[in-house]
Design goal:
- With 454 residues, this protein is α/β, with parallel strands linked by helices.
- It has 2 domains: 270 residues, Nucleotidyltransferase, domain 5; 158 residues, 2-Layer Sandwich (Nucleotidyltransferase, domain 5).
- It is 37% helix and 22% strand.
- A hairpin with a 2-residue loop joins strand 4 and strand 5.
Amino acid sequence: MWFLGIDIGTTHVKVVGVTAEGVELDPLRTRTPVNLIDGATFHEGGEIWDCVRDLVRAYAHGPVQDVGGGLLAGVAVGSFGQEESFPVDDHGTPLTGSRAWWERWPERTLHAAAVEHLDSVEHFRTSGMRFRDNQSPDRIARLRADHPDVWAHTHRWVDFGAFVTFQLSGRWALSSTQATHSQFFDLLTLEPDQASLDLVDIEAGLFPEIAHPGTRIGALLPDALPGVPIADGAAVYVGGHDQVMAAYASSVHDGASAVDAIGTAEYVMLTSGAFALDERLHAFGADVERGWMPDQYVLGWGLPTGKILQQLADRFVDGDFDRLMAAIDVDLPSPPQVHLRVNDLHGRAEDLFDVEGVEERTRPDDIVRACLTDLSVQIRDTVRTMAAIAEAPLDSIALTGSLFQRSELVRHRERLWNLPLRVSPLREAAAVGAAELARASHTRATSTVGDRIA
């Protein structure tokens, strides 16, 4: 018997199995399908579901069969943030794709009064989130304004984790780790924030019912995963935000309360029982979201580090990522006049970052080393500030994610941070977290106990 964790990531979809005895099986991954429309990247729900289904079938007949894993007993799904959501009709059929979270529109559709409210300290105290252009409020306003025919048939607004969970179980659920990313729900109570809903002129029923991670949603539909042997009573459990799933895996395997997870985006997380949602956190630009336990919270702060590194490589070293890594793997001073300035993700800057102080004689390798030094120092200072806010000791920081498999980046951070860093042995932390969550939930669940619908 085994349990499946699915991680729908920006660049890859990953699956990991964990046996009933807790043995982690080898992972399997494939590229996340994308569409380019007018130069912008989109993800499409149906294509991602097809990708997940095919990957799970290959996994069941590959790594699972190779070790005699037996029958699939439970599934949970992690996915990138609720910021990337899309409309479905009353049958659960996607009506449009979802513009990728890093894309920018040239202008806002949401009216100024709504933006001011959603980015206010007062609203931050409710949702734990600041306004960003790529979150649900502006996306919904844009859909309604630009595609009224689609809006007229929209029954629900769902993230990719909720959509895949629906395909597996036939039931909708919005993970509590994703709900407040919409800015329409109260962080503490998970009740709808009516003032925010009214500003955008929508009803709370547009979103699926909220459920905590580990909630048994229902039986795994017998035809959801063709060709995959399924145990009697196999169930689907609520997963959540991929970064929270990675933090859960780190907690289970490493005992870490501080996690730095990096892929296309980098997200630093500290877990705690509560955080004061005050002006300091608002100005700091942090997110506070629900954790994997009902009374747990995660203080998070993110940057699109992976995107920044790739764009630096494209701009200065002909797209050679290995050369970029080699440039930071030397203990040499950087040009003092060169600086990387990451643009405010809450603002309207078109580019992710600007590079300042580049002179004609400055070597490209020195430029990227200076930029990555600035970036690493900014993240280090952020980690220290978060620990001070949370009043949490930094005994160790677990490093997870694909980019921390690059030893050059780890050594660069170690030289600059002077903090206890430990690379997690987990190869696909978010998928492992989802699988471990399904396993733990199955262990304690019965037909009548274990549901924790908010």
